[in-house]
Amino acid sequence: MTEEKRIVLRNADLINPKKIEDYMQAGGYQGLEKARLMSRSDLIAEIKKSNLRGRGGAAFNCGLKWSFVPTDAPVSYVVCNFDEGEPGTYKDRIIVQKDPQSLLEGMAICGHAVNSKQGYIYCRGEYPYVVELLNLAIDQARGKGLLGDFDIEVRMGGGAYVCGEETALIESIEGHRGEPRFKPPFPGVAGLWAQPTVVNNVETFANLPSIVLNGPEWFAAIGAPNYPGTKVLTLTGDVANRVSIEVPTTATLREIIYDFGGGIKEGKKFKAVQVGGTSGGFIPESLLDTPIDFDSMRGIGATLGTGAVFVMDETRDIVDITTRIAKFFEHESCGKCNPCREGTFRAYEIMKKINNGKAVAQDIENLTILSQVMEKACLCGLGQAAPAPILTTLKHFYPEYQARLQIH
Amino acid sequence: MITLTINGKEVHTPKGSTILEACQQNGIPIPTLCYDPDLRLAGSCRMCLVEIKGRPLYAASCVTPAENGIVVETESPGIVAARKVILELLSARHKFNCQVCEKNGDCKFQDYCYQYGIKESRFIYGEATNYGINDPNPFIERDYNKCIMCTRCVRACEEITAARAINVENRGHHAKISTAFDGNLADSSCLFCGQCVMVCPTGALTSKVSAGLGRAYEVDKVLTTCSYCGTGCTLELNVKNNRVVGVTSNRTATGSPVNKGALCVKGRFGWDFINSPDRLTTPLIKENGQFREAGWDEALDLVAKRLGEVKNEFGPDSMAVFTSARVTNEENYVAQKFTRAVLGTNNVDHCARL
Amino acid sequence: MVNIQNIILSFRDKPGGIIEAFHAVQKEYNYLPEETIAVAAGTFGISEAQAFGVATFYSYLSVAKRGKYVIRMCESAPCHIAGAEALIKAFEEALEIKVGETTADGKFTLELTECVGQCQDTPVITINSVPYVNLDPAQVPAVLALCQ
Question: For B118-133, what is the mean pLDDT?
Fold first, then answer.
């Protein structure tokens, strides 16, 4: 049986998150100290070698991403994506609430690697109480001179899921509407205020102190070789224990739901699990033995995404839940590109029609064509991922749709 | 130079070109709605999507760099299907009344619907958008029920005129072009230059002054220089049945070298005087407190005679000439030459100096 | 109450700080009073149309007047299956207003929201950004009584 393995949550509940002294006593800031003794290129090479991949959505190799920042850039920025807005996800909040200094240390390590003097944490507007904690933590780290000439500022989001997309997030820090930019240029070349910018997720940064301290080989040996390390998961829905856990990436969905989640609550049967947040695919019982690492999940047409694990029992109405998810995307589309702005709106209308028992087979066909185009034609990840719940539920739970159709 | 393959044909394009530019240089048509060569790129309408071999997502050709060796398809079945879906999605929100629409025959959206055979939309679900179209200004008709959210008007307002009167409000399907608090243009920083009308690819923004007077295909376009000021903007008189029924922009650098189509409120909307019956068509001479019509020779002789008399009696410095910024440099030159060489005085000035 | 102009001016030196300024105004007034847009536009050197565009983009910000207590009810999928709809209905009935409305006495505003990141204890609402979790319709009167 897989056991919990704590890297980013190594200090959780063992230290007082409001006391930097506790963090120091637990080995805090030794990773940064070690990193600063390394040259920039050596540090990036180490991170590359660890094969740490982004814990946001795209799972890009972290060190490789850093290496895109030009070595001669006079100004560059380190941005932490703490906009976790995927429903069912609260892992970044847990990481920061339990151990904010790990994030700051990780950002400072990145700052050294890309020669940046300024970091930003973009925290979602729904977490004002976490912003307070972060500002306290920054003050403490600054007060002790630990950050050196690297400074960190917290910016608050305003309730826009799309700002989890890195270029929309950058637009928002710049004080604009959070509409994604087209790429290229990528943020590593022209990001915040058109300067080279590294954007990583909270969990990615929080992994860094341990990787630097223990070496890339140590990290690369944990979990799945292609996506090493651990993943913090948040279990929600109809699971007996709605907990957050950190497990090696070799853990399977079945282990997570049954061993850590205690199975389905009230002794009911499993029906489906949606992994990675509301933009993730729905997974049926037959695929539960898939490991959670990014590539394995992609292999079954799903995503690891944020690591949200949303479990639904046998009584749940898949069409109703998918309708609700379609409303989410209708609400969160930024409106910049045509297929997403209009597509999310019409997809929700079609789902409502199906859910209300008013639809015919042609409506499902229209929904399918719309979804297939959105996946490939939308400007950013939001519109590209929005059809995933629809397409995967159509694939795995088609009889539920069929049962809702009017017979003509 | 960069070499790439488009639709099975090897083509060349300068380094730094986009795929769209490579297509344009090589005569390969690509539909665009949000793209405008004079405005910053948006990459948002997704009409210019192309397929690039080996890439899982479709690429908006207007913002995707042409790279050596890439293999591009511009009309693959997948691309055509995507463009159709996009046009159908826009059709589902666009209020079609082409029979009375000012843009009929000069509408990119209509052209693409025709080209891709969009007879009806598969996506008419839910309530249709219904925005009020009452903006009480004399110049610009705003019908956002026809808007396809390409944001060219917003960019033109910011980047060409710098009036910054409009932007996008709200988000998602509820996003709409608006002034602050979605008010009237007259209460905003709008200058009514009509650059928004110029760039709008549909009938969402049209000229109230030209409404009902003629369609684009009914008028002759006569290039002329605006007479309102000395800037020398080129404008395109729209002439129907020997009457001016509107002014449009010629946006080419050769046709409109001074202003590339950009105009001000006077040049774009202030042309109704041309056909006014109040307009003077012959010189008038005032006798006994009454004007009478006269010929040019008679009028000029009279002016020359009277100026000569004044000069003889009171000296040349008793006269002054004041010229206008509304005439050209050349005309101003002639005026000062006349003042100095003919009248014999240096009393010459110009309104732009005051 | 702190003057809106002073609040916004205190963010003047923060590049792109308009959203921070909006948050600060909203913390004081619970919404963005009309003058906020013009003052912020002037302070940050953008047009009023753009400032309005920013203010209306973010669902956490409101240009409409709101009550003293803004109750936001999560309806994302995990809350949805945990009974969010019944909870929303209970709040509507208790306050005799619909979602999006404010009570006549200006005390409560009801809004829907997407996930607020407390999905371990669904369904969730927030009152002036403070989360209340694991609610059921029977608890609505007690929750409202907390708002004095």
Answer: 92
Task: Kindly report, residue by residue over B147-180, the tens digit of the pLDDT.
Answer: 999 999 999 999 999 999 999 999 999 999 999 9
Give domain status of residue A117, yes or no: yes
**Distance in Å, alpha carbon of B85 to nearest chain A alpha carbon:** 7
Q: Are strands B2-6 and B71-73 parallel, antiparallel or unpaired?
A: parallel
The structural domains of chain B, ordered by start, are 2-75 (3.10.20.740), 89-207 (3.30.70.20), 216-275 (2.20.25.90), 284-353 (3.40.50.740)
Q: What is the CATH number of the domain that holds A397?
A: 1.20.1440.230
Give yes or no for a contact between B109 and B94, defined as CB atoms under 8 angstroms apart: yes
Q: Which residues of C touch A85 (CB under 8 A)?
A: 114-115, 117
The whole-angstrom distance between C6's CA and the closest CA on chain A is 19
Cβ atoms of A66 and A47 closer than 8 Å: yes
Q: Do the Cβ atoms of C49 and B170 come within 8 Å? A: no
pLDDT per residue as tens digits for the range B273-290 = 998 999 898 999 999 999
Class of residue B32 by CB neighbours under 10 A (exposed 0-12, middle 13-18, buried 19+): buried
Q: Measured between CA atoms, how close is B159 to chain C, in angstroms?
A: 13
Domain that holds residue A113: 20-221
Structure tokens at B185: 């243009």
d(CA A340, CA A378): 6
Q: What is the DSSP string of A343-390?
A: HHHHHHHHHHHHHTT---HHHHHHHHHHHHHHHHH-SSHHHHHTTHHH
Final residue of a structural domain among A270, A298, A313: A313
Q: Classify the phi-psi angles of C130: left when phi > 0, otherwise alpha if psi is within -120 to 50, otherwise beta.
A: beta
- Indicate the pTM of the whole model: 0.94
A163 three-class SS: helix
With cut-offs at 50, 70 and 90, classify the pLDDT of residue A116: very high
**Residue A234 dihedral angles phi and psi, to the nearest 5°:** -120, 120
What number is the ipTM of this complex?
0.96
Chain C residue numbers with beta carbons less than 8 Å from the beta carbon of B185 are none
Which residues 6+ apart lie within 8 Å of A285 measured at CB? A270, A271
**Residue contacts between A and B (CB atoms, under 8 Å):** 105
Per-residue pLDDT tens for C6-45?
999 999 999 999 999 999 999 999 999 999 999 999 999 9
Helical pair A318-332 and A388-396, crossing angle rounded to 10 deg:
170
User: Which is nearest to A293 in space by CA: A352, A351, A253, A243?
Assistant: A253
Q: Which helix (H) or strand (E) holds B91?
A: helix B77-93
* Chain B neighbours, 3+ Cβ pairs < 8 A: A, C
The mean pLDDT of C44-61, rounded to a whole number, is 97
Is B353 within 8 Å of chain C by CB? no
Residue C13: Cβ-neighbour burial (10 angstroms; 0-12, 13-18, 19+): exposed
Other Cβ atoms within 10 Å of A310 Cβ, number: 30
Residues A237 and A278 in one domain: yes
Query: Residue B161: is it exposed, middle or buried by C-beta count within 10 angstroms (0-12/13-18/19+)?
Result: buried
Does position B18 have pLDDT exceeding 70, yes or no?
yes
